[in-house]
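Q: Given only this backbone (372 positions), what sequence would you predict?
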């Protein structure tokens, strides 16, 4: 039986060379050279160069150093104990695993450094700091997930798992995970929708499916709003995907709309009243003259004739709008009273027949009979 080892790949020869004393010496010199180069870049390089050097320093020195010396020590133990080729193959596999872990660490550090750099912020060109930090956070998470998936696949290949089995397992795991975390995934994807569509931002007052308040934080799973009674309300992001969202903070004006009831006996005066109120609103400094201003007699009600007042304020601040609306309503009340008219009450008025006297009418009502 031949004792000549079987064929080896180029990676096996490279790993076995690094596990020798000469390979250890050359690897150590290479690490020292890398350390000197990274030190020079971190101290004398420009902003991006120094940041990348700082990001690579630990993965290169610690990660590759541990890989180099650990594989050398295990190889020497195997050599002294003469455990055979199978153990040597395991040593090579462990060395490859350490190298993959070191490369993954370095790639993740470099990616995160680039994403957090000023160059990336200039490239995405988003003025709003909250939107900018949210987008960078999204990119950072996607990048981390992608690197970890690739590293996991590489490790599985290193441990001898066939590529087809890896693809099948990852696909099945993805399907099972998606069913198991359907609600979580829906909220997470809705969080992406909130970022890219931006129907509202932190600080906006919103109303979604009668859930109303001021947005305090937009998270990946839920959004926290503060209700008007100052209570925190945590809303799953999927609510915003299936319900209309009202964002009063995005409106350009606030509307004043009222139906003012006058008495039927003021029918002859309502034309002058509407004209005077319309002139007053058209000259009001807080009313937006570019929007519709409508003052009109528009309804015959059961106990009143109604005048519609419809206009828009320039301000969108709720408190200021209330003060403007109050001043306008008080002025309208003054116009109505100065014209000799008055406001109608919700009541029923009885008018006697032309030929009936009051005594006959009262007697008929008391007896429950129609007046003759």
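A: Predicted residues:
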């Amino acid at each position: 039986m031949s004792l000549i080892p079987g064929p080896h790949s180029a990676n096996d020869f490279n790993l076995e060379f690094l596990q020798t004393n000469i390979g250890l010496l050359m690897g150590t010199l290479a690490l020292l050279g890398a350390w000197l180069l990274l030190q020079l870049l971190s101290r004398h390089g420009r902003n991006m160069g120094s940041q990348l050097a700082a990001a690579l320093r630990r993965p290169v020195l610690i990660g590759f150093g541990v890989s180099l010396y650990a594989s050398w020590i295990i190889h020497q133990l195997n050599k002294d104990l003469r455990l055979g080729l199978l153990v040597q193959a395991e040593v090579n596999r462990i060395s490859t695993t350490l190298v993959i872990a070191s490369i993954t660490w370095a790639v993740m550090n470099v990616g995160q450094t680039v994403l957090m750099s000023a160059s990336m912020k200039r490239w995405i060109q988003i003025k709003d700091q909250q939107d900018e930090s949210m987008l960078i956070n999204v990119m950072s998470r996607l990048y981390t997930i992608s690197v970890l998936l690739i590293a996991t696949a590489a490790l599985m290949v290193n441990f001898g798992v066939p590529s087809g089995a890896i693809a099948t397992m990852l696909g099945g795991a993805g399907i099972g995970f998606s069913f198991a975390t359907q609600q979580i995934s829906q909220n997470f994807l809705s969080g992406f929708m909130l970022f890219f569509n931006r129907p509202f931002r932190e600080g906006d007052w919103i109303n979604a499916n009668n859930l109303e308040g001021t947005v305090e934080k937009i998270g990946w799973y839920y959004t926290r709003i503060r209700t008007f009674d100052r209570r925190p309300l945590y809303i799953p992001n999927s609510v915003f995907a299936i319900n209309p969202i009202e964002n009063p903070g995005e409106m350009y004006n606030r509307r004043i709309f009222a139906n003012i009831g006058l008495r039927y006996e003021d029918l002859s005066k309502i034309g002058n009243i509407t004209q005077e109120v319309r002139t007053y609103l058209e000259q009001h400094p807080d009313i937006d003259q570019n929007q519709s201003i409508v003052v009109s007699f528009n309804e015959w009600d059961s106990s009143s004739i109604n005048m519609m007042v419809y206009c828009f304020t320039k301000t969108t601040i709720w408190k200021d709008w209330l003060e403007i609306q109050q001043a306008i309503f008080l002025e309208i009340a003054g116009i109505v009273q100065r014209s000799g008219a008055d406001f109608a009450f919700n009541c029923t008025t009885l008018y006697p027949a032309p030929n009936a006297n009051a005594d006959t009418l009262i007697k008929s009502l008391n007896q429950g009979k129609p007046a003759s």
